[in-house]
Write a structure and sequence with these properties.
Structural class: mainly beta
Distance between the termini: 22 Å
Order of helices and strands: EEEEEEEEE
Number of strands: 9
Number of domains: 1
Radius of gyration: 11 Å
CATH topology: ATP Synthase, domain 1
Largest sheet: 5 strands, mixed
Shape: globular
Strand content: over 45%
Helix content: under 10%
């Protein structure tokens, strides 16, 4: 799926991933390919993504929002 992670002043990641783990306000959750449409708020924690080649990347965030549909995920973070 296509993933874009942006901060107000920069883009942290723009590429493909097969799994994204997010710190939601109700707890950690994961988004995989073909996930149902979602909009959720995020809290302080670690955002983890697994690229298509199984390489992992992590970002510490202070909160944000995620919107996803049709294998296109936009994550706005602080």
């Amino acid at each position: 799926m296509k993933v874009k992670i942006t901060k107000p002043d920069s883009t942290l990641y723009d590429g493909e991933a097969k799994l994204v783990q997010l710190p939601g306000t109700g707890g950690l959750f994961e988004i995989l390919n073909n996930h149902a449409p979602i909009i959720s708020s995020l809290t302080k924690g670690t955002l983890r993504l697994v690229k298509d080649n199984d390489e992992e990347q992590s970002f510490d965030i202070r909160g944000g929002v995620v919107k996803g549909q049709n294998n296109d995920l936009l994550i706005l973070v602080q």
